[in-house]
Amino acid sequence: GEGSFLMDNCGGDVVNITAAMRTPLAPQTTWARDVEYFEVEEQLPVQRTARYIVVANSFDGSTYTVDSALYEWTGGRLEAVAPNPFENTKGAYHWRHFVMGGAHYLVVANHYDDQGNGYGSPSVIYKLAYSAALGKSAFTPVQSISTAGAAAWEAFAVGEDTYLAVANYFNGSHFDINSKVFKLARTNPDTPLPRVVSVQSIPTRELMSM
């Protein structure tokens, strides 16, 4: 059915948007834990500023393996991006957008997989790149990262180095577990796979945010 979003102070500019989402493209938001707004200066198929929101859907009433959703602000409203690049996320708790080497990425905090790995479900990095088959830019998964009940991500840069920090919440038996900081090898936009290296473990307990 119809839904709405309100976005304030997104991407450095104050943007107040109340947007009805059209069906049937708009998947139903279900137990949404987080939304992340970001902008991309796209060059193909035409040069434009694309504005997106990604929604972390975590549960549908029966399973935690549900589709998260990506929306684009276009024509004065939010439209669901099709095909949906974020199918079958695992109890998604949080999304974080970051840019590395000129390329745009999203990382999802997969919190719980009731059909397999439980709280050991890996989180996933997706990269945005132009798809000739689709005739537009699209996100594809490029890297999995071992996490334990991941609840949040933070991305930051130190000089030319890019880092990701994850808030690990629970490993299935203990809340007193390490959260981690990862270093991502600097890449250019044509490099498909970032190299992720764990550089620090931080003792935490039931950490839900970074």
Automatic annotation (TrEMBL):
Q: Which GO terms describe its biological process?
A: signal transduction
Give yes or no: UniProt keyword Signal: yes
Cross-referenced InterPro entries: EAR, EPTP, Haem_d1_sf
Q: Which domain of life is it from?
A: Eukaryota
Q: Pfam families this protein is in? A: EPTP
Cite the PANTHER family for this sequence. Answer: THROMBOSPONDIN-TYPE LAMININ G DOMAIN AND EAR REPEAT-CONTAINING, THROMBOSPONDIN-TYPE LAMININ G DOMAIN AND EAR REPEAT-CONTAINING PROTEIN
Q: What is this protein called?
A: Uncharacterized protein
Question: Which organism is this protein's natural source?
Answer: Hemiselmis andersenii (Cryptophyte alga)
